[in-house]
Amino acid sequence: MNQSSATILVIDGDEISQKYISALLRKEGYQALAASAGLEGLISAWRDRPDVVIFDPALPDITSLEFLTRLRKDRRTATLPCVALSGQENLQEVSKLMAAGCNEYLVKSSETVPLLLQTLTRLLGKEDYAPMRRGKLFAFLSAKGGTGTSSLCANLAMCIGSSKPDKQVAVVDLVLPLGSLANIVGYTENINIVTVAMQRSDTIPPTYFKEKLPLIPGWYFRLLAGSPDPDTAMHLPGDRVVAILQMMSTVYDYIFVDLGRSLSRISLPIIQRADLLVLILGADLATSMLTRTVWEYLKTLGVDAKKVFAIQNRSVGLEGPTKPEVEQMIGLPVRLTIPYMGGTFTFSNNRHEPIVANYSKDAVGLALQEAASQMVALVEKQAK
Ligand SMILES: Nc1ncnc2c1ncn2[C@@H]1O[C@H](COP(=O)(O)OP(=O)(O)OP(=O)(O)O)[C@@H](O)[C@H]1O
Ligand SMILES: [Mg+2]
Questions:
Q1: CATH class, range 136-383
Q2: Which ligand 1 atom minimizes the distance to the CA of 339?
Q3: For the chain, which end, N or C, has fewer CB atoms within 10 Å of the first or last residue's CB respectively?
Q4: CA angle 130, 136, 139 (to 5 degrees)
């Protein structure tokens, strides 16, 4: 179908938003129809037969579920492509609407414009239509620095990338003001989270992240490196980070984010969105106690214990609390303990090599591979 002749029905109770979206669509060459409530929208959909419907689920008259049910029940609109464009992300709403026959779910913001346009192009090019990919987000967090968060983030991503060649894996370094993943994997070029976030959002389509991010030799993932220095970090537009991850989730299956030791305006929305929160615990008592404080705080934000994957990493060779002691202290099961590896961990990092490249049959190599497959199994189970 010729995209410019396509008609899009915009149903939105908020007049400003409805006008904004309609004007945007017209600018792109679409015909735009508008309705300001659910019933009016249904009538227009049945009468005017648009090619796509975009609707804000917060309808003033009927529930979004009733809207979708009636839309899908009617033979004229049973297969009409339908995009929910919500004022705020509500993860329960996403699954409810998708189950009721909605094709896509996006969150309103100027950052979403390229995604919305890309979605329309896909929905209108019916032959090769495939629902938008929703990559899984693994967020790595620790309560204390130096516990091995970055090394484990890179190495676990590598285990998944190398064992699942059909999956696209990306790693994002969000440790501020100075990232370390580029050093660990040996990346020395200039693309990083700050340079990407500073570009105008409508100039970078989601495919940018697939094509332009470097594929790191031997690591089986693409890297969005962190800030190379504190000065650059000062220029990071933090409010763009979630949109960048959202775009990445349309082109990657698994996205690993290193948040380091940070609970901030930037990291908290990512922690709340994560499909799996990988919490790295150290070997000592002080770290376990800090972790308990962090976990108690995250619970108040609604983070679900089922989504937490705690790893105890003996990054220093000290005697420390045992696994059951740590579990009792923080109130979470420890899924994996990584032994102290002496210099081998640092040796691999210094050579920019993944641990399993050299120690795949050692206890630590096996533990990493086992943890990686458990993590994938957990997020895939949640998706069902
Ligand atoms: N199990 C382990 N055995 C031995 N050394 C380890 C182990 N885990 C991590 N290390 C070493 O500990 C150091 C810190 O690791 P890493 O940089 O991954 O930690 P981090 O938590 O990301 O630190 P930062 O707070 O600086 O971001 C590195 O030199 C790494 O090689
Ligand atoms: Mg780190």
A1: alpha beta
A2: 1
A3: C
A4: 155
